[in-house]
Amino acid sequence: xxxxxxxxxxxxxxxxxxxxxxxxxxxxxxxxxxxxxxxxxxxxxxxxxxxxxxxxxxxxxxxxxxxxxxxxxxxxxxxxxxxxxxxxxxxxxxxxxxxxxxxxxxxxxxxxxxxxxxxxx
Length: 121
What we know:
Blueprint: E1 7-16, H1 22-32, E2 36-43, E3 46-53, H2 55-67, E4 74-82, E5 91-93, H3 114-120
Parallel strand pairs: 2-5
Antiparallel strand pairs: 1-3, 1-4, 2-3
Active site: 23, 41
InterPro entries: Acylphosphatase-like_dom, Acylphosphatase-like_dom_sf, Acylphosphatase_CS, Carbamoyltrans_HypF-like
EC number: 3.6.1.7
C-alpha cells in the first residue's frame, strides 16, 4: 500500500494507562492488524498513539482498544484526530518523553509489569 493510500490517526488516551501494560498491549494490537506507527507515554496519565494503515483495520483497532485493554487499565477519555500519514514502516513503542502533564493516574497498589521493568533496564 502506497503512503498516499494510507489513513492515519493520532490518538490520545487519558486514564490509568501507565504501569499497567498498556503500551505493550497497544503494540500487540497494532501489529496483529498490520498497522504502523508508535505508542508513547506523555507523562502523568496520558498515552499518545499514532497509527497508520488501512482504514477498516484502524476502525477495528479503535474498537478493540477499549474492549480488550489490560484489566487494570481504565480509560477516562480518548481523543482521535485524523492526521497526515508519516509513512511509518513498522509499529514501535517509543521511549517515554518528558512529562507533558502533571496529572498522574498510576494506581499505587498495582505492581510494575515485566515489560515496564525491562524498559527501565
